[in-house]
């Protein structure tokens, strides 16, 4: 019983650490954002001056959490000289509700009676008056504007009146904007921008080393009386082993390449902690791998795997229509194409229509426009929402339609190529295309059954360079080497989707 | 403590049983208006063990265990979950059963029944504030919240209250040294059918709000679970959000479906041998359990027909299996095409499908039913109006003159003069495209003109034969058919036979469109004994097998009912 208890306690500890921003983001070093922000705000509190700061950084990089830490510290240090107003762009983006919310929070803070019926003007005048009063009482009002970019929509009256009130010497306020748009200050109107201090704090995602430190920080158990000594030491040793493992490092790198923000890492950690085996009470390599695979989903492929063979055939027909570059693609056109398939099944039209509707529900295809609601389903134009590579994999995974394998093999779609081009730093393609930044050209030249060598000759690029670029960028179909794509005799096709 | 022991009715059960339990719990509420307690946030019913849940959901073993792991032990905080998978894969019922097993409080709200944001918010707050709508409070909600900001404020208040309540309760339990009946400090908010939120009015603000709710509330005691039938990548948002943890429910495999279908059968062996025969071909069409069970039920009855006791207690042997197989074989193919008999399509399409089904087995049709009987009543002039609307939608406007000029009937001379091969080809592709694009729109004037032509044509031939009998009637009929056309048109519009589009900015007048299928139009025409195919552009041009067959039927009908119009064979 005791044994069970400390294992469950370990899981609980890890999970609550992951869900506790204080534990994750506490960082006292001098050049951390936490220290910088704390210095800025506390100096304006102690020196009774006005200030405005923007905290910028991608979503999930901990802007809000760091700010929260700073505010809690300040509230402890100067409990009487701070009053806090929190607004969120999602909730209070229109001026009326923003002023109302400010008035409500000010009333709450200072034990005043809040009137719901107060008008916009009343509320804004109340705010200005309160700012003045607070300034006289040497009380700093801190405005936290989460989702700052949403306040910059419309006439920006709130931002203007806030920043304008801060120009007078009587007031004493700090405006802290949080936004995941790096150009948030460019969204401001001229009259607002000129009143803004242009102080910005950038929150960057941690480097790989920092991420690993964070991993250790979160996953190691404390060696004190809360856990049996042997268990904690053994647990920490295993974690150390896992983190230093080369394979783990590679997977982690791959995972963080998608999004290296802290929250993204925490998602994985949460999964790993909850996959922990309660029998042994230790995190194992298998747990880690399982959680990696369960968190990195490929929804479209999963969806394709679920499709019945009739549904796959319909998708395949749509792809054929797309390849033929037919302008119109609706259910009737698909049925016409379906009839031309080798060995057609004799399903009636309404069965196919239902399968077609299933595909729409699965969101593998969708209607191209919302117009023509009154048109019945079979006439409304549709488009594919999956790339040909995905469809290819889906067809391959499905055992029931093997005969389409060959037809579908090795087609390259435009999205594949654009992503390829992006990832290669556009070196290969910029040099390989006669008109740069147009992958169409490259593909159309391949359409004429040019072999790889010819492409290289035509566009005067080094074979080594091309190969290197191809090697450095992961293709969506990594199993097939790039050169085999190009040298393949079947005609690669351009899909018109972008 | 007393509250714990008083017998409670299950307040919430699986989706299927919800309807039956709703009425009984309402009665109880009226009789016994006891204030709700925190215990009412638990999923009702007696405790259920994890093994029971796993055995009652075949093929869902790994998903159940994964969710249990992610929910974690008692009092452990949780990041938001996103449970997704196709319809009828057991997402909602597994979540609810798991909470019944774990005995933790949840607030369940389905975005299907709460069909807009204020209803959703009010339902969540009602449950959290333990508020019950009844006659004494005028069936009002606990809080009114129109704005998102109000909702978040109220929600925070209500949640803190509930969590404090829970904490007190668990402390009391700890001090009393009670180990059973712990419900923990966590409260879970479950949003079912989350994919529907995307179609709401203010979805662009409410979606990011709900996804960011966890960060917004900053309460580690609150767990969020989103259940959706579409994958997380279909929730586009230009705001961005930290993605919740995905849990995927794949569709059932063939083996799973077999187990599920076998569960409630009386004679499992017989049913299993039936599934050996039938399931494979149906599985190729759809993988949804609901569809499959509906489709297989009538077929199984067919399968059992040769048996004396309808297959209640026989154990099948090889010999019998063979016999039953040969019995069922011809039915499988035909029932494959009737698999979706219960369709949720609009009424006109249902009609179409019925018609198509009849078309599917023409031999039976000829014997059993009189061809072209309409199963609804419609006035004659409305029928003509519908036909003319169909023609106006289907035919290109430029051909109206040639089709309707001299007393109707097709211009045979035009057909004799053969256009060049290329032009014909081009024409054919063009008309096929028209057919595929679906019905076109037309102005009111064109509809009325065609209608007038049709009525005049339809009544003319009757001059020869019916003049003597009721010569007067024809004149009256002519006037009668033309009267109240606008009224008829508006009633057809209301019945969704004809759609009224928005007014065209250039022409100014309204444009109409009819979406009835050709089969329905032919049916209406037959009931009027009106030679529709003569006026259809497509059939004039290409004499496909289908067209020919229709012409044959018309010819046949023409012989039977006397001369109606000019038959195309002349």
From TrEMBL, chain A:
The keyword Nucleus applies. The keyword Phosphoprotein does not apply. Residues 214-394 form the Origin recognition complex subunit 4 C-terminal domain. InterPro entries: ATPase_AAA_core, ORC4, ORC4_C, P-loop_NTPase. Pfam families: AAA, ORC4_C. One of its GO terms (molecular function) is ATP binding. It is found in: Nucleus. Keywords: ATP-binding, DNA replication, DNA-binding, Nucleotide-binding, Nucleus. One of its GO terms (cellular component) is nuclear origin of replication recognition complex. Residues 53-199 form the ATPase AAA-type core domain. One of its GO terms (biological process) is DNA replication initiation. Belongs to the ORC4 family. PANTHER family: ORIGIN RECOGNITION COMPLEX SUBUNIT 4. Component of the origin recognition complex (ORC) that binds origins of replication. DNA-binding is ATP-dependent. The specific DNA sequences that define origins of replication have not been identified yet. ORC is required to assemble the pre-replication complex necessary to initiate DNA replication. This is Origin of replication complex subunit 4.
Automatic annotation (TrEMBL), chain B:
The keyword Nucleotide-binding applies. Residues 1-21, 350-374, 403-428 are annotated as: Disordered. Keywords: ATP-binding, DNA replication, Nucleotide-binding, Nucleus. Residues 378-536 form the Origin recognition complex subunit 5 C-terminal domain. GO terms for molecular function: DNA replication origin binding. It is found in: Nucleus. It holds the Pfam family ORC5_lid. GO terms for biological process: DNA replication initiation. One of its GO terms (cellular component) is nuclear origin of replication recognition complex. It comes from the Eukaryota. The keyword Nucleus applies. Residues 350-370 have a biased composition (Basic and acidic residues). Residues 271-318 form the ORC5 lid domain. InterPro entries: AAA_16, ORC5, ORC5_C, ORC5_lid, P-loop_NTPase. Residues 57-219 form the Orc1-like AAA ATPase domain. Its main location: nucleus. Belongs to the ORC5 family. This is Orc1-like AAA ATPase domain-containing protein.
């Amino acid at each position: 019983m005791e044994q069970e208890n400390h294992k469950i306690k370990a899981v609980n500890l890890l999970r609550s650490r992951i869900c506790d921003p204080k534990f994750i983001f506490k960082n006292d070093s001098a050049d951390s954002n936490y220290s910088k922000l704390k210095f800025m705000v506390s100096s304006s509190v102690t020196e009774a001056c006005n200030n405005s700061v923007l905290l910028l950084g991608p979503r999930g990089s901990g802007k809000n959490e760091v700010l929260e830490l700073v505010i809690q510290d300040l509230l402890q240090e100067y409990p009487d000289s701070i009053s806090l107003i929190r607004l969120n762009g999602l909730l209070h983006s229109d001026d009326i509700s923003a002023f109302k919310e400010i008035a409500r929070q000010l009333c709450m803070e200072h034990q005043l009676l809040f009137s719901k019926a107060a008008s916009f003007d009343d509320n804004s005048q109340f705010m200005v008056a309160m700012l003045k009063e607070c300034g006289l009482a040497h009380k700093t009002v801190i405005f936290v504007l989460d989702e700052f970019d949403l306040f910059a929509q419309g006439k920006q009256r709130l931002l203007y009146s806030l920043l304008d009130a801060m120009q007078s010497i009587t007031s004493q306020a700090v405006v802290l904007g949080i936004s995941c748009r790096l150009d948030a200050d460019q969204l401001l109107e001229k009259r607002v921008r000129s009143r803004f201090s242009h102080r910005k704090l950038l929150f960057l995602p941690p480097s790989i080393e920092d991420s690993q430190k964070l991993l250790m920080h979160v996953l190691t158990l404390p060696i004190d009386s809360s856990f049996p000594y042997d268990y904690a030491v053994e647990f920490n040793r295993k974690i150390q082993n896992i983190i230093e493992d080369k394979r783990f490092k590679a997977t982690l790198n791959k995972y963080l390449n998608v999004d290296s923000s802290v929250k993204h890492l925490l998602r994985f950690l949460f999964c790993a902690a909850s996959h922990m085996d309660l029998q042994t009470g230790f995190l194992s390599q298998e747990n880690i791998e399982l959680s990696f695979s369960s968190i990195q989903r490929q929804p479209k492929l999963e969806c394709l795997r679920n499709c019945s063979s009739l549904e796959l055939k319909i998708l395949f027909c749509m792809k054929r229509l797309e390849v033929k570059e037919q302008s119109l693609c609706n259910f009737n056109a698909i049925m016409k194409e379906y009839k031309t398939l080798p060995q057609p099944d004799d399903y009636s039209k309404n069965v196919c229509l239902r399968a077609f509707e299933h595909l729409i529900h699965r969101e593998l295809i969708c209607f191209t426009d919302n117009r023509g609601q009154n048109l019945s389903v079979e006439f409304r134009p549709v488009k594919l929402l999956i790339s040909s590579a995905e469809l290819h994999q889906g067809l391959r995974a499905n055992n029931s339609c093997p005969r389409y394998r060959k037809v579908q093999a090795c087609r390259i779609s435009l999205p594949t190529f654009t992503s390829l081009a992006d990832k290669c730093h556009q070196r290969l393609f910029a040099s390989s295309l006669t008109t740069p930044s147009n992958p169409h050209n490259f593909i159309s030249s391949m359409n004429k059954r040019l072999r790889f060598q010819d492409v290289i000759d035509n566009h005067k690029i080094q074979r080594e360079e091309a190969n290197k670029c191809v090697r450095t960028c992961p293709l969506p179909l990594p199993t097939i080497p790039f050169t085999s794509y190009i040298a393949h005799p079947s005609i690669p096709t351009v899909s018109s989707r972008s | 403590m007393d509250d714990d022991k008083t017998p409670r009715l299950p307040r919430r059960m699986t989706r299927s049983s919800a309807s039956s339990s709703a009425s009984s719990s309402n009665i109880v509420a009226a009789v016994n208006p006891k204030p709700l307690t925190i215990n009412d946030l638990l999923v009702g019913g007696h405790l259920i063990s994890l093994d029971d849940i796993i055995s009652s959901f075949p093929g869902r073993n790994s998903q159940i265990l994964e969710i249990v792991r992610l929910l974690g032990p008692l009092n452990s905080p949780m990041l938001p979950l996103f449970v997704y998978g196709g319809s009828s894969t057991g997402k909602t019922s597994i979540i609810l059963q798991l909470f019944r097993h774990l005995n933790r409080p949840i607030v369940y709200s389905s975005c299907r029944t709460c069909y807009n944001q204020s209803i959703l918010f009010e339902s969540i707050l009602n449950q959290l504030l333990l508020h019950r709508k009844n006659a004494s409070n005028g069936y009002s909600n606990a809080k009114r919240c129109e704005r998102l900001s109000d909702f978040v404020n109220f929600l925070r208040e209500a949640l803190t209250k509930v969590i404090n309540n829970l904490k007190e309760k668990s402390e009391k339990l700890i001090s009393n040294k009670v180990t059973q009946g712990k419900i923990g400090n966590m409260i879970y908010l479950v949003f079912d059918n989350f994919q529907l939120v995307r179609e709401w009015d203010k979805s662009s603000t409410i979606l990011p709000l709900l996804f960011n709710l966890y960060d917004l509330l900053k309460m580690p005691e609150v767990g969020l679970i989103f259940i959706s039938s579409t994958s997380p990548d279909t929730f586009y948002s230009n705001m961005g959000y930290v993605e919740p943890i995905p849990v995927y429910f794949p569709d059932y495999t063939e083996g799973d479906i077999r187990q599920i279908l076998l569960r409630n059968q009386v004679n499992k062996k017989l049913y299993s041998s039936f599934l050996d025969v039938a399931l494979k071909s149906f599985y190729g069409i759809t993988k949804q359990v609901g569809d499959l069970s509906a489709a297989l039920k009538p077929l199984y009855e067919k399968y059992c027909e040769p048996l004396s006791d309808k297959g209640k207690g026989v154990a099948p042997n090889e010999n019998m299996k063979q016999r039953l197989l040969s019995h069922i074989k011809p039915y499988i193919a035909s029932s494959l095409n009737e698999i979706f008999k219960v369709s949720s399509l609009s009424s006109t399409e249902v009609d179409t499908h019925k018609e198509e089904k009849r078309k599917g087995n023409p031999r039976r049709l000829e014997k059993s039913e009189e061809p072209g009987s309409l199963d609804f009543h419609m006035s004659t002039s409305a029928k003509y109006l519908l036909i003319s609307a169909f023609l106006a939608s289907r035919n290109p406007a430029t051909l109206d003159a040639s089709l309707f000029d001299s007393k109707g009937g097709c211009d045979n001379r035009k057909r004799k003069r053969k256009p060049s091969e290329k032009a014909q080809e081009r024409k054919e592709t063009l008309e096929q495209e028209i057919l595929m694009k679906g019905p076109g729109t037309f102005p009111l004037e064109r509809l009325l003109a065609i209608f007038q032509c049709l009525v005049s044509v339809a009544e003319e031939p009757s001059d020869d034969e019916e003049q003597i009998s009721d010569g007067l009637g024809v004149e009256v009929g002519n006037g009668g058919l033309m009267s109240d056309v606008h009224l008829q048109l508006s009633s057809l519009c209301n019945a969704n036979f004809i759609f009224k589009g928005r007014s065209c900015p250039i022409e100014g007048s309204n444009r109409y469109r009819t979406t009835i299928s050709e089969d329905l139009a032919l049916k209406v025409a037959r009931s009027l004994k009106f030679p529709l195919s003569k006026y259809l552009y497509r059939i004039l041009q290409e004499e496909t097998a289908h067209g020919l067959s229709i012409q044959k039927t018309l010819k046949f009908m023409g012989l039977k009912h006397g001369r109606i119009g000019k038959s195309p064979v002349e």
